[in-house]
Amino acid sequence: MASTIVLKRRITSIKNTRQITKAMQLVSASKLRRAQEYATRSRAYADLANELLTRLSGIGEVERQPLFTKRPVKTRLYVVVTSNSGLAGAYNANVLKQLTRGLQADQDAKIRTSVIVIGSRGAQFVRRLHGVELLAAYSSYGDQPTANDIRPLLNTIVEQYKTESADEVRILFTKFKSTVSQEAQSQQLLPAQALAADASTEAISNFEPDAETVVDQVAIRLIEAQLWQAVLESLASEHAMRMVAMKNATDNAKELIDDYTLELNTARQAAITQELAEITGGAEALNG
269 CB contacts (<8 Å, ≥6 apart)? Predict the structure, then answer.
């Protein structure tokens, strides 16, 4: 059994840790409310963008547009959304596992791969991979990202596809479903296509001024909407998973404090019992 001094130090240390995890839990809960509101509010716009892509995909003229052109996949570009910090449960691990499975499948199919990472955690992981090009690494966009924040990333993706440096672009992110449920997903960005298999493919018949002009101006904005939504979903998922992880850590700290407090009381009682025994024995020796 550890000494009372060691037990007191352990209890104090755990109490300090519990204060930190509790504060992080409250901060994440506050950030989650805003991030969840942003992600939920923009889903209607992302769904509309998907619907428009579905309708554009049904037009014959669109197939000749650079962003809709389908090519045999010889090079695939992944955009991976992670965080700058840890302590968020399996948030980063789930996305990186999704990336690992994709890289393994590409390696088996003899497909060259390159990666663009959002967040330092993903960049650290990709740098250790052999045979995978880290094309760019962007810092996490913070708690209130704007469209201007993701525009450099969007321009890089579009340029990579138009110049045929990548034949397919996929984004790996974490979709926010609820506070206790988040799912890592892989979504194709380019070539532009519909995401929903059961979506309507009714073609648009009238364009002003013409189909080429409309597609050039609209397609990039629709892809931007999908990219933007993926970032917002990931941000809400990160705060939710960090809040849950910190709550679990706080609860575990409380249990440890209770266990060590019980052990400390037992040690104190044993020490008192031993002292009483020694005093009693000494008194009897003197009387004898």
Answer: none
Q: Which CATH architecture has domain 23-244?
A: 3-Layer(aba) Sandwich (3.40)
DSSP state of 248: H
Among candidate residues 46, 48, 57, the one with its CA nearest the CA of residue 201 = 57
Radius of gyration (C-alpha) of the chain in whole angstroms: 28
Read off φ and ψ for residue 118, nearest 5 degrees. -110, 120
**Quick check: 67 and 161 in contact, CB under 8 A?**
yes
Is-contact 158 220, C-beta < 8 A? yes
Contact 239, 33 (CB under 8 A): no
pLDDT of 259 strictly over 80: yes
Indicate the pTM of the whole model: 0.83
Has residue 196 got a pLDDT over 60?
A: no
Of the pLDDT bands very low, low, confident and very high (cuts 50, 70, 90), residue 182 is very high
